[in-house]
């Protein structure tokens, strides 16, 4: 039985049949669909490859200096990357060995700096590259975050995107004075109201023509064209005008990750870009199809949602050269860093398990009985190609490239795998991870981009809208910088303003 999208007012591509996927034909997509590439980084040491700060090829220890970010931005724009996507985290990873010492010693997402502060410097040396910044709805008031995004949207000429997170860490909650995180679905309810208030500030506080700069009447802004937002909700109260005049996009491009029922519902309502992961294209295809269908049921065009998956390539001129490069990188990997990161994100202290024994599969085993079903599943889910799964092997796996799709080979080999994810899972783009920085993206530009361009995946070899906003380049639509009409934030527009 084939699953169809339910809203016939929008285009539908049914490709999920039972539990398998029917690939979308290459000749239909090549030259018509543009693969979007984001560089996946973090303003800190040890993002997803732990210990590489020891590698002479790696520059992650220089992230507290502007030259790293300035040169990276110029590199990514030269390579026609869609965006630089900046992850973020609060607190420290303190589950492994019951301490934050392993994470701090190995440089596992530590030290970590504020991602917002580096955007202006990068915007000054680029004209099209977009900037996606992670910010959490659980810890910061909507008013201050809306002001910061509007300011940066002005300074970048409309190239801002927000990765909306609700946090997953009680450690982070304690850093902000909370005893623990709110319950999972409650966090999404908070985030939903957070977005409603942000839309009011971004979309309805100022008319497009409020700023007149009329010296004859000594009027900078027409008072009647600016309104105070009064929001008294369950989780937030705010009474103020938005302090920033309308920026090029008003609302930044909205990214979100999370495939739980609450996360999927939130994404289907609010997100324009969704990060989705899974062990195979077939699994991811089902999640994408369900989320598109849910978006359609909410009145949105399901293909206004763009899906990205994490993808870490190790590239060389040949497959053999790429494999040799990976072996060289492995010399610097720190297993304790990998397990510290795994413990921080999963809540599992792997130090309690014998290092060279297979993880027990019995849920009543003494080492498993205190774990939740989700934790047990995460611990026992081994990547493809691993016939043995022990803490030591997990440590190696987690310390190189994170837990996303990992491919080693030439540009052609890596492009083949990307095509598989595009055709079988219907992904729109990739968050390109790294082992060494910025060398990982230099290799993408040297080995992978020419192959993707040759196959017709990168348009005419330039940005879809050169010098355009993040939203114009996301959709390839000039002069459409604002939220699309089927997006819920659109309803908050100042009456009479065009899009």
TrEMBL record:
One Pfam family linked to the record: Bac_luciferase
Domain of life: Eukaryota
SUPFAM superfamilies membership: Bacterial luciferase-like (SSF51679)
Family: Belongs to the NtaA/SnaA/DszA monooxygenase family.
Protein name listed in UniProt: Luciferase-like domain-containing protein
Domain Luciferase-like per the UniProt entry, residue ranges: 53-422
Lineage: Eukaryota, Fungi, Dikarya, Ascomycota, Pezizomycotina
PANTHER family: ALKANESULFONATE MONOOXYGENASE-RELATED, XENOBIOTIC COMPOUND MONOOXYGENASE, DSZA FAMILY (AFU_ORTHOLOGUE AFUA_6G01920)
Molecular function via GO: monooxygenase activity; oxidoreductase activity, acting on paired donors, with incorporation or reduction of molecular oxygen
């Amino acid at each position: 039985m084939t699953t169809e999208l339910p809203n016939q007012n929008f285009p539908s591509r049914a490709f999920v049949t039972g539990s398998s996927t029917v690939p979308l034909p290459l000749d239909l997509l090549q030259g018509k669909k543009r693969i979007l590439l984001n560089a996946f980084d973090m303003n800190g040491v040890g993002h997803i490859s732990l210990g590489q700060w020891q590698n002479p090829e790696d520059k992650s220890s220089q992230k507290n200096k502007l030259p790293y970010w300035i040169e990276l931005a110029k590199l990514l724009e030269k390579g026609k990357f869609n965006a630089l996507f900046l992850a973020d985290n609060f607190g420290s990873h303190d589950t492994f060995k019951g301490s934050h010492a392993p994470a701090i010693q190995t440089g596992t997402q530590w030290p970590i700096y504020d991602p917002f502060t580096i955007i202006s410097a990068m915007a000054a040396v680029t004209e099209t590259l977009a900037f996606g910044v992670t910010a959490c709805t659980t810890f910061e008031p909507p008013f201050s975050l809306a002001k910061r995004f509007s300011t940066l949207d002005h300074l970048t000429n409309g190239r801002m995107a927000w990765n909306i997170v609700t946090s997953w860490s009680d450690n982070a909650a304690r850093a902000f004075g909370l005893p623990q995180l709110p319950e999972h679905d409650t966090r999404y309810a908070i985030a939903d109201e957070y977005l409603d208030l942000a839309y009011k500030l971004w979309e309805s506080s100022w008319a497009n023509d409020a700023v007149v700069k009329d010296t004859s009447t000594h009027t900078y802004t027409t008072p009647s064209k600016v309104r105070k937002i009064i929001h008294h909700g369950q989780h937030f109260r705010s009474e103020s005008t938005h302090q920033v005049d309308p920026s090029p996009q008003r609302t930044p491009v909205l990214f979100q990750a999370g495939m739980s029922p609450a996360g999927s519902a939130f994404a289907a309502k609010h997100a324009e870009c969704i990060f989705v992961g899974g062990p195979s294209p077939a699994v991811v295809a089902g999640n994408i199809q369900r989320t598109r269908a849910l978006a359609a049921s909410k009145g949105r065009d399901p293909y206004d949602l763009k899906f990205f998956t994490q993808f870490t390539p190790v590239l060389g001129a040949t497959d053999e050269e790429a494999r040799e490069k990976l072996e060289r990188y492995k010399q610097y990997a720190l297993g304790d860093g990998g397990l510290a990161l795994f413990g921080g994100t999963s809540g599992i202290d792997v130090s309690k398990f014998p290092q060279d024994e297979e993880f027990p599969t019995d849920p009543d085993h003494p080492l498993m009985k205190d774990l939740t079903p989700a934790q047990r599943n995460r611990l026992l889910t081994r990547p493809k190609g691993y016939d043995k799964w022990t803490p030591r092997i997990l440590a190696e796996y987690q310390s190189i490239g994170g837990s996303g799709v990992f491919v080693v080979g030439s540009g052609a080999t890596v492009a083949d795998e990307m095509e598989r994810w595009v055709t079988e899972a219907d992904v729109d783009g990739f968050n390109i991870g790294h082992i060494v920085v910025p060398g990982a993206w230099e290799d993408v530009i040297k080995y992978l981009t020419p192959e993707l361009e040759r196959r017709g995946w990168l348009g005419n070899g330039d940005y879809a809208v050169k010098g355009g906003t993040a939203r114009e380049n996301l959709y390839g639509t000039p002069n459409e910088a604002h939220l699309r009409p089927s997006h819920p934030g659109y309803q908050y527009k100042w009456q009479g303003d065009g899009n």
